[in-house]
């Protein structure tokens, strides 16, 4: 049962294609398991359609239709096969299948981090923490999203288990700690280009 | 704009009397009282009046062009209908272009991506599912995905992510996409200006949270709460209908 969801602001930005790619990966991971948020996304996309429909038209070039029809006659170009990430595939929701990953790096006892390729705006990666560890998440640089893929953590009064998404705005203090007896695997992303604390150290080690 | 929708042997045609043009695709125009007005082929030659068998059925006077656009996409899928595509192109390409320009592209790049979007409409027409989305919503998502892809390719020419697999429709997905689309459009139009502004910004501004804060001078917390209010209204509008 998923209890924690992204905000409407985040889902709408995602549906509008305006969320930085790194944050979008976390939202995609959550959406895969959350029918309620898929419904919200569908609604936001319908809003996008309505907003577009209501826009004043901008004239296309005169031969635009003829050009497109001429291209439509030609066979579709073949798309090159994807280079797929390997590793956590069994735990990753399918929307993340095609992501490319860096190597796992140990960043502290009981903590490791694996960078994901996700564009120049923001940082995304997988974070694995052993039971009892505090996740090194500190939002100093804009929005921070974390989606639990396996295990669970507790932050204040809230418990986050598989599928749950934690959304933390800049400057909001929090102290997520892995509970239970299994490691917690999360996909995390922040809006800022620089990570802080332990993850920042990992980022510098990776030359990111 | 006044639109008529008429079904003839499974073909639905498009009639736009508001602009003085009539676009019909291999179909018969039939008005109530079984008066057959005429028919056109798919390049728009008028072939009638033809006393064809009264196979057509008067459906409704429609004010929602989205419904008809959905049928035009299906006509493109079913028989590579260039006439139907031309209607879609004239309606959507200039709006996609505006949308892309508001999202930060220059006119040249927006033109190119708008053409690309319409080419995808042609090629992917068979994937269009009117139960999931209105024509406008479907074309909006194509344009959105192409914009993201173009941005990605700029950085990494060799990576091209596929469209994510479609998740199953929720069991509570009771509304038809046409009803949903019409209701959402209406509800957006009814939003108070300050909420409508925030909603629209989600589709126009890159980095919406920070940008809204900066451009509209509204603090982030207010942006989020206004958006939450707006979405709650839209949800309520949809629930009314279910
Ligand atoms: Zn959710």
What is the ordering of alpha helices and beta strands of chain B? Answer: EEEEEEHHHHHHHH
Number of strands of chain B: 6
- Overall spatial form of chain A: elongated
Q: How many strand elements of chain A?
A: 9
Low-confidence stretches of chain A: 81-89
Number of helices of chain B: 8
Report on the biggest sheet of chain A: 6 strands, antiparallel
Low-confidence blocks of residues of chain B = 1-67, 157-165
Helix coverage percent of residues of chain B? 40-55%
- What CATH architecture of the largest domain in chain B do you see? Orthogonal Bundle
Distance between the termini of chain A: 36 Å
CATH architecture heading of chain A: Sandwich
Mean pLDDT of chain B: 70
Would you tell me which CATH topology of the largest domain in chain B applies? Rna Polymerase Sigma Factor, Chain: A
The radius of gyration over CA of chain B amounts to 20 Å
Distance between the termini of chain B: 28 Å
Mean pLDDT of chain A: 83
Number of domains of chain B: 3
- Please state the oligomeric state of the protein chains shown: heterodimer
Biggest interface, chains and residues, is: A-B, 65 and 83 residues
